[in-house]
Amino acid sequence: MSHRTLAFTADYLLQTLRSFPVVNAYIVGFSGGADSTALLHALKAVEKQLDVPISAVHVNHDLHGDAGLWQQQCEQFCHQLQIKLVCLKIDPDRNSGKGLEAESRHLRYQAMSALLKPGACLLTAHHANDQAETLLLNLMRGSGVDGLSAMPESRRLGNGFLQRQLLGFQSTALRDYLRENRVEWTEDPSNQYLDHDRNFVRHEVIPLLEQRWPQVGKRLLLTRQAMKGARCLLERLADSYLQQHLTHPLVLRMTPALLDDRELLKLVIRRWTMLADGIPIPAHRLETFCGQVCRATEGHKVSLAWGDRFLRLYRQQLWLQTEMESAPSGVVNWPQQSDHIDLGKDMGQLVLGNDAGTAGQTENRTDKQHAILPSGEFDVGTRTSMKETVLCQGTLHKSLKNLYQANGVPPWLRDYIPLCRLNGELVAMGDWCFGGQFKAWMSAHNSSLSWRPGNPLLQFIHSLQHPEKH
């Protein structure tokens, strides 16, 4: 095992940046501490070779009496280097249940990710010592292969990317760079507080381990590298399965192979949900959920909620969704002189016109060009706002419950399927089930009703009813 510490230089940073995917802007997460100061200073030194704009973002947690002073020092440093700095303020909730460290980290990344436009990259100054600490912390949390792989070098964040270019350098190398270039930095006294888990590991645990096993940081990084290799193999296995069995990015088909192998099921779900939104499911809750899925019989309700995400089982498929806005609580009258009606972000629009491809795009047209609604009261609602539960199709009277089931609409999404009513009679469910008289009216007037849902799962349900359009 080599004891040589890699020296940090601006040129080495440039080489590292060029080994990552090309981006159109770099934003440095800048605290004013030694690590982020070294990163920002070195990045400025190679700005011309990068040929993309660089800037910085400082997040003020307002947890220390000198937080305002530290922000001013960051502003002065960036002004001297002629680097644009954006300062953000967050308000961590000490009673969130996550712990102050985790809550602050979550809000910090949430705030910084909002700045990222497509193709932009957030650079953070995490280094090799941080990796070793993260591995130990995750080990204490009972993490699996993912957690023991510690921090990835790159991942998606918001509309852009997060990259950690300094993971190959020790913290001492970054401070050596600052001293050689006579660059000052800010020391945050909270980094010495041992009630913070990471500080306890940094100042108490690792020094004790080094007394017994010198260079323990490098040994831990070897473990991290082995876990990274194992994780990559497992991800490839999960990705291969997902490619074959995702009927939609948010809908996973259950197979006998998955139901007979709980470990495979956990692996695939964990990989799928992380690819979808990057929010991990707590291990114990995933274990319980997978057990319920494997034992579920037809009609058995199985669900899992974490944060604002949900996993539900319906007809041997898992449906992944985020929290949706509330479905309209009342019935909305469709104005006679309008060819469309807005139903909200998730439910989208209903459009009535001769050409569903162009209807709804122009409101200021002559009366002759306006879509013609049937005479009488024409209104729109959902099953929770309408007492009508039967759709008359000629001599057939079909209940909404049977229509939902026949069209594969999961129970928790049925409140988001628009229903149209004419003079108190139910005449349409979505844009695929019509009452006989309304269907005849549309045919006689060369008209069509088109639903344009906004929510991805509602779009998927819509596509199942209109496969020829998708």
Write the layout of secondary structure elements.
Elements: H1 10-18, E1 25-29, H2 34-45, H3 47-50, E2 54-60, H4 67-81, E3 84-89, H5 100-113, E4 120-123, H6 128-140, H7 145-148, E5 154-157, E6 160-163, H8 171-180, H9 197-212, H10 216-245, E7 246-248, E8 251-253, H11 256-259, H12 262-277, H13 283-295, E9 303-306, E10 309-314, E11 317-322, E12 332-333, E13 340-342, E14 349-353, E15 378-381, E16 390-393, E17 396-399, H14 400-406, E18 419-422, E19 425-429, E20 433-434, H15 436-444, E21 448-452, H16 456-465
Parallel strand pairs: 1-2, 1-4, 2-3, 4-6
Antiparallel strand pairs: 5-6, 7-8, 8-11, 9-10, 10-11, 12-15, 13-14, 14-21, 15-18, 16-17, 18-19, 19-20
Describe this protein's structure.
This protein has helices at 10-18, 34-45, 47-50, 67-81, 100-113, 128-140, 145-148, 171-180, 197-212, 216-245, 256-259, 262-277, 283-295, 400-406, 436-444, 456-465; strands spanning 25-29, 54-60, 84-89, 120-123, 154-157, 160-163, 246-248, 251-253, 303-306, 309-314, 317-322, 332-333, 340-342, 349-353, 378-381, 390-393, 396-399, 419-422, 425-429, 433-434, 448-452. With 470 residues, the chain is an alpha+beta fold. The longest helix is centred in the middle third of the chain and has 30 residues, at 216-245. Strands 3-2-1-4-6-5 form a six-stranded mixed β-sheet, with helices on both faces. The N and C termini lie far apart (57 Å). The protein is 40% helix and 19% strand. It is built from 16 helices and 21 strands. The protein folds into three domains: 10-213, HUPs (Rossmann fold, 3-Layer(aba) Sandwich), CATH 3.40.50; 249-322, Chorismate Mutase Domain, subunit A; 332-469, no CATH class. A hairpin with a 2-residue loop joins strand 5 and strand 6 (160-163). The model is unreliable at 356-371 (pLDDT under 50).
